[in-house]
Design a protein that fits this description.
single chain, about 230 residues, alpha+beta, TolA/TonB C-terminal domain, 16 strands, about 40% strand
């Protein structure tokens, strides 16, 4: 995704190895004219909502998980899938050289453009991070804190917005922050405020997972100085 070192959708062009063949596609390209396989749709849903966790280092290499792994889907319907309804599959992301196999159970929407995550395994929890939208984050916020407007910034009439990306741990505490943009004189105050936010755990099935939330802190200094924080779009 954005900002973190070696960040980004960890595979823009996905290669999904199906049990009946191989389908190649790019998440950033237009949908091809021929039908897209269920496996390719499910992999794209994973790519839409997850990013490599840059802080989860592979013990063999001391580096984040590589982005050149292989995608595939399971042969059987997972037990967590509903008996009737839209397609529901288990998606795998394998990095054989690192002995890593991430998996997610994805229940696709009717059009296949998005879906819900019913489960994920330990490797997925460790090496990937759920990227939470503003709508999802609204339901997770339990405590928010406004920043303290730095006196030096007030005196200098420095105003503006600071965008902060926060890594939220499984317990709901903010573990790390990264300032994406904003006036340098205001970034420390925004980052400190972000670290004080509390969230309900992000759940995938019955499992609490780490996630990333984007916050925006506004500093205004017109008649009276004021500073506030909110979820970013």
């Amino acid at each position: 995704m954005r900002g973190w070192p070696k960040r980004g959708i960890f595979l823009a062009c996905v290669v999904v190895t199906l049990w009946v063949g191989t389908t190649r596609g790019c998440a950033q390209q237009e949908v091809p004219s021929k039908p897209v396989s269920v496996g390719a749709q499910a992999a794209r849903v994973v790519l839409k909502h997850y990013a490599l966790n840059p802080f989860a280092l592979d013990p063999k290499t001391s580096q984040p998980l590589p982005s050149n792994g292989n995608w595939s889907i399971g042969k059987t319907t997972p037990a967590s899938c509903p008996q009737i309804g839209p397609p529901c599959v288990e998606v795998f992301y394998d990095v054989p050289a690192e002995s890593v196999r991430c998996s997610w159970v994805v229940l696709l929407n009717a059009d296949g453009a998005d879906g819900a995550f019913l489960d994920e395994n330990d490797d997925a929890e460790r090496y990937l991070m759920r990227v939470v939208s503003k709508t999802e984050a609204l339901a997770l916020v339990s405590t928010r804190k406004n920043p303290v407007y730095p006196p030096i910034a007030i005196a200098a009439k420095v105003t503006g917005e600071v965008v902060v990306e926060a890594v939220v741990g499984k317990s709901g505490d903010v573990q790390k922050t990264l300032v994406v943009s904003g006036p340098p004189m205001l970034t420390m105050a925004a980052s400190q405020a972000a670290q004080s936010w509390k969230f309900k755990p992000m759940m995938v099935g019955t499992r609490a997972v780490p996630c990333e939330v984007k916050l925006v802190f506004s500093f205004k200094n017109f008649v009276y100085p004021s500073a506030s924080g909110d979820l970013a779009p």
